[in-house]
Amino acid sequence: MKEKEYFVQREVLDEIRLDEVAQKGTWSVKPTLGERVKESLRCSGPRLKHILLSWIPVLGWLPHYSFRENAIGDLISGCSVGIMHLPQGMAYALLASLRPVFGLYTSLYPVLVYFIFGTSRHISIGTFAVISIMIGSVTERLAPDSNFIVNGTNGTEIVNLDERDAYRVQIACSLTVLAGIFQILLGVVRFGFVVTYLSEPLVRGYTTGSACHVCVSQLKYLFGVAPSRFTGPLSLIYTLVDLCKLLPQTKVPELVVSLVALSVLIVVKEVNACYRQKLPLPIPIELIVVTATIITHFCGLTDKYYIDVVGEIPSGLKAPRAPDATLFSKVLGDAFAVAIVGYAINISLGKTFALKHGYKVDSNQELVALGLSNTVGGFFQCYSVTSSLSRSLVQESTGGKTQVAGLISSIIVLITVLKIGSLFEDLPKAVLSTIVFVNLKGMFKQFMDVPSLWKTNKVDLLVWLVTFISTILLNLDLGLAVSIGFSMLTVIFRTQLPHYSILGNVPGTDLYLDIEKYKEAKEIPGIKIFRSSTTIYYTNAEMYLEVLQEKSGIEIGKLLTAKKKQQAKQKRKQEKEKKKAKKEEKKQKKAVKHLPNGTFSLKESEINKRKVSEETNGQRQGNGVALTLKETTANGLSKGRVNWAYQPDTTISESDSDTGCHGDDSITQVSHHSDEEKGKASGSGTHSIILDISTTSFVDSVTVKTLKNIFRDFGEVDLEIYLAGCQACVVEQLETAGFFSESIPKSRLFVTVHDAVLHILNKLGRKDFMLDMSCNTQM
Predict the structure, then answer these.
(1) In angstroms, rounded to a whole number, what is the distance separating the alpha carbons of residues 361 and 518?
(2) Is 688 helix (H, G, I), strand (E, B) or coil?
(3) How confident is the model at residue 154 (pLDDT cuts 50, 70, 90)?
(4) Which of 108, 669, 709 is nearest to 407 (CA)?
């Protein structure tokens, strides 16, 4: 196949010339603040319609709902998800340390609210294990059993379960309403991007750690034991230790029920997974297992073996009740954590399905929808909700096309609460705990992230591990805070420790690549091209300057010190010569006094001539550097400049300065000496440095000051500094910061590195080298 080529012929463009060629405009395409305010206050029919459709999405899609295309799929999907809601709602309510009926309420009201305000077509809103365990940690912390102990019969102490459960419901509802308010406020101020700070490794590590908390919390139902309740850091470890101590007290009947239910669930779930393409509907094994309530009821297992069951499930709906606002201060931090985690799970699932099916999910509207679901649900004694992966997958795989499926599922839950809820009163809690265990399979599969991240990105692996370990050891609230802080630190460290490189030209192209990674990339003699892999700002500006000196081999501090010493040495030598000249003059005056009067005028004229000659020679010696600069123009790369800081000693020797007759020879010597020392300047005779700042997306005051210092300090040692690849927004920021001046003109800023290189070579008269860099680039 023939290689493709392209040819570019244009003039070298600096920033000034670019503005002329590209006709940079001074107008602003953005509306002013006044115009934006006026636009936001303007009222019209189309604008009102747009606002209504954006805030209440159901008004946009429901009138155009296609019964022919969507009705059957949504009906089947809604029934399947509704059947899953029943056992999962009751099981996850136990995680929240609430009675199972509140899980059914939570599977009803928030789903209806999301149907109206949500933008995702496939996610299933309701109870979720991670959110449930977060709620449970708060309810148990603020309402422990020890606060509700009363004196029973025969002097024994018992826990007032009714009072305890009622107070826990108040706590859960207050926390849910507050979390919903946080989500609504964040959505209204268009703060949906906040979830981007929760990276995927962080969310997956956190949910995996939360799954471990869920698993441990359900072990007591599997073994039929009652471990002590622990809160705070290391509570998971303490609970495990206590469970191990209580294993000899395991209730065998409950363990048998758990193992049988677990076996059946696992087998049928695997069958559903293997034959999901052939089965019209997944086998509703969770609902089938829940029918164990029939066995428990008719076999009298509760009375014979004291198996712990769900208990009373009141029929009907309860009237809405305002949450206890006095609890807000106690659950403030927990509510914010629940709001962020719930939204992170919700939006990640929503965007996954949206990408798969080709529609868009509005992140800010999702915040509002989830916040309204929580706020309204909190008034109806629901606890915080988010989307569930298992239910969402079923809703999507069974043909669900819209949130009508969610509406149908909520109707099924409503019928259950109103009419058949009492049938589940004899359901063993051990069966519900096995349902929770089986549904944790997807989260535990996230442990496979560890080998995958080890191969792809070790920093993300570190975030995953730190998040998981902190969640396990420090509990859910502190673990989330620590993991977010650590994730932020990794970002900061990565910007503080970028990759710096010296670039070289690939012969015959306009490409400039890292000379350490590309063999064909060759440095241009006398020119150093320096690039950072990230934005230069206050955290890495100092390191940028340090690495620039290290990579270019130019230690600016030492060079400036050497220059100052050189200047001081020259000054001392000049003063020494002046003193010596004065002494000679005094000696000659004394000699003249002893001569006859007739010869005085003659000697005086000779002295005057000699003084004039010495002054002339002194000036020629003093201006030897200037002459040298002119002489080196033809041959040197410095175009008439000598880097004084590179010269250890360019002073004229005392023997040459004593007499004026050797002035021309001394100039030649200085010139020759300067050329020799220039070659030693920095190992390669560097005369120009190009800073490639194409990766910089913004500049702050520290960056501007650093760049100014680079121009000033390197300029003092006669090194030319140029900028290349600066984005238009960065140029505007530099102009606003007053970066450009007479000492740093805009002509030092070039469109590309290649433009800067050609400018320097043209300035030095290196036509031969320019011919070798023609842009006949092969692709």
Answers:
(1) 43
(2) strand
(3) low
(4) 108
Asked if 105 contacts 382 with a C-beta cutoff of 8 angstroms, the reply is: yes
CA distances from 641 to 379, 525, 667, 755 (A): 80, 16, 16, 22
25 backbone dihedrals φ, ψ, rounded to 5°? -90, 150
Checking DSSP bridges between strand 776-778 and strand 125-126, what pairing results, if any?
A: unpaired
Q: How far apart are CA 69 and CA 66, in angstroms?
A: 6
CA distance 577 to 663: 15
Structure tokens of 529? 């091209």
- Give the separation between CA 337 and CA 477, rounded to whole angstroms: 7
Separation in Å, CA 625 to CA 619, 640, 643, 650: 11, 10, 11, 9
Q: How far apart are CA 66 and CA 312, in angstroms?
A: 42
CB contact set of 324 (below 8 Å; sequence gap of 6+): 170, 171, 173, 174
What does the angle CA 180 – CA 161 – CA 431 come to, to the nearest 5 degrees? 75
CA–CA separation, 532 and 696 (whole Å): 8
Amino acid letter, 165:
D
Contact present, 423 and 293 (Cβ < 8 Å): yes
Q: Is the per-residue pLDDT at 606 higher than 90?
A: no
Please, which residues have CB within 8 angstroms of residue 399's CB and are 6 or more apart in sequence? 72, 73, 74, 76, 77
Q: Note whether 539 and 495 are within 8 A (CB).
A: yes
Please name the residue that has the structure tokens 């998040």.
467
User: In whole angstroms, what is the distance from residue 724 CA to residue 754 CA?
Assistant: 9
Among 344-353, 405-414, 468-477, the range of highest mean pLDDT: 405-414
Could you tell me where the DSSP H helices lie in 440-457?
441-444, 449-456
Query: Residue 615: phi, psi to the nearest 5?
Result: -65, -40
- What angle do helix axes 200-223 and 429-439 make, rounded to 10 degrees? 150
Q: Return the C-alpha torsion angle 182, 183, 184, 187, nearest 10.
A: 120
- DSSP secondary structure code for residue 149 in this structure: E
Tens of pLDDT, residues 736-752? 999 999 889 999 999 99
Q: Which of 238-247, 256-265, 611-620 has the lowest mean pLDDT?
A: 611-620
Provide the phi-psi class of 313: left if phi over 0, else alpha when psi is between -120 and 50, else beta.
beta
Closest CA to 726 of 743, 710, 705, 704: 704
Largest alpha-carbon pair distance within the chain? 153
β-partners of residue 411 are none
Mean pLDDT of 387-411: 90
Q: Directed axis angle between helix 161-188 and helix 129-142, to 10°?
A: 120
Q: Write the DSSP symbol of residue 309.
A: B
Task: Kindly list the distances between the CA atom of residue 540 and the CA atoms of 154, 699, 736, in Å, as whole numbers in the listed order.
Answer: 72, 12, 22
d(CA 389, CA 483): 23
| Inter-residue contact 78 to 412 (CB < 8 Å) | yes
Pairing of strands 149-151, 720-724: unpaired
Tokens of 620: 């020629």
Of the candidate ranges 232-246, 566-580, 597-611, 743-757, the one whose mean pLDDT is the lowest = 597-611
Domains of the chain: 35-64 (no CATH), 69-201+243-439 (no CATH), 500-556+682-773 (3.30.750.24)
Q: What type of residue sits at position 12? A: V
C-alpha angle with apex 373: 372 to 377, nearest 5 degrees?
Answer: 110
Question: Rounded to the nearest 5 degrees, what angle is found at the Cα of 348, between the Cα atoms of 344 and 351?
Answer: 140
Q: Measured between alpha carbons, how far is 116 from 61 in angstroms, rounded to an integer?
A: 10
Residue 30 is inside which H or E element, if any? none
Per-residue confidence band for 405, with pLDDT thresholds at 50, 70 and 90: very high
Q: Which amino acid is residue 680, in one-letter code?
A: K
Between helices 556-593 and 701-716, what is the axis angle to 10°? Answer: 40
Per-residue pLDDT for 126 more than 90? yes
Rounded mean pLDDT, 289-293 = 80
Query: For residues 544 and 689, is the Cβ–Cβ distance under 8 A?
Result: no
